Request: fold
Amino acid sequence: MKPSVWHRMDILRRQLTPFMLTIFLVFVGLVPFHISDLARVMPLFSLIAVFHWGVYRAELLPMYAVFLIGFFQDALSGVPMGVYTLVYVLVYGLVSFQHRFFSGKSFCVVWLGYAVVSAGASFLVWLLVSLLHGAVVDPLAVAFQYLLGLGCYPLIAHLFLRWQRAVLQQV
Reply:
């Protein structure tokens, strides 16, 4: 029996969910909150999403989707084009390569993995932006951005895990 149009649309909606949630987090990270200097240290919510989906549901967030997410982050954030694209693709590739390591591990191990990977990603973003601008970007701002992202990871990961159980369990 051939599935109905509505059933196929429901499956497509579920499959696009990780990409759409990550794009939403790109926009959330760029919203001006009118808090002094918050934009300089705003955590990379989309990096959290790329890491999370790479660990738990990599089949729903393919590499080309990660490339598009990085491209949107580059285009909207004002950094030189290609910085976030390269970093997100590298992070996703690393997480995909280590998928067996993260599989079945406790949340603390995955969080520690995120801490290590995001530290490397933050350093790489800092290095690339500094090189491409020809001036050293404030490393303290990057450190605070990293720490805020590390602190936000449990909340965002918890929301994503609940979303997986509620919406993505049939995909």
In short: The two ends are 19 Å apart (CA to CA). The chain has eight helices and no strands. Residues 139-166 form the longest helix (28 residues).
